[in-house]
Amino acid sequence: MNTETTEPITNTIGAQRHALQVLADLTEQHPTLPAPYIVIHRPYRGGPADLHLQLDTPSDFEQWRTALRVPADDVTLRFGGVSSWISAETTIDGVLVAFSGHGIALTAQQITAPRTIDETAPAVIA
Question: Which of 4, 5, 46, 121 is deepest in the core (most CB within 10 A)?
Fold first, then answer.
C-alpha cells in the first residue's frame, strides 16, 4: 500500500498563466511605460507565480511606481557590492509584482558606509 502524498504539479507553464495575464493587463493599461526586463518566477511551494520587473534607471522605476500607485514610503534602497538599486512590491489581482530601478550612482564613501543588516540587500541562497 502506497501512503505517499503528492502535491499538485506547479512546475508547468500553465501555473504561470495568471502572472502572464497580469503582465498583459499592465501592457494594455500602461502602453507608454518604459520597457522592463521581465522575469516570471514559477510558483514555489503552492504559491502563485511572481512577476518581477527590472528597470534601467530610477526615473523609469518612478514612472512604474506612480502608475502602480505604490507609495514612496514603500520604496527600499538596496546595496549589493558596488551596485545599488531601489525596489518596491505590490500585489495585482493576487500576483506579487516586484519591481526595481537600477543605475544609481553612489560615491565610494556612500558604498562603504556602515549599514545595519536591514539596509542591505537580502542574501541569495543557492
Answer: 121
Strand partners, 99: 53, 88
Burial code of 89-119, b = ≥16 C-beta within 10 A, e = fewer?
bbeeeebbbebbbbebeeeeeeeeeeeeeee
Burial class (CB in 10 A: 0-12, 13-18, 19+), 10: middle
Question: Helical H runs in 1-126?
Answer: 17-29, 58-67, 108-112
CB of 86 within 8 A of CB of 58? yes
Contact 64, 33 (CB under 8 A): yes
Q: What is the pTM of this model?
A: 0.74
CA distance 71 to 103: 21
> What pLDDT, on the 0 to 100 scale, is given for residue 121?
47
Percent of the chain surpassing pLDDT 70 = 76
What's the pLDDT tens digit per position in 22-66?
A: 999 999 999 999 999 999 998 877 778 999 999 999 999 999 999
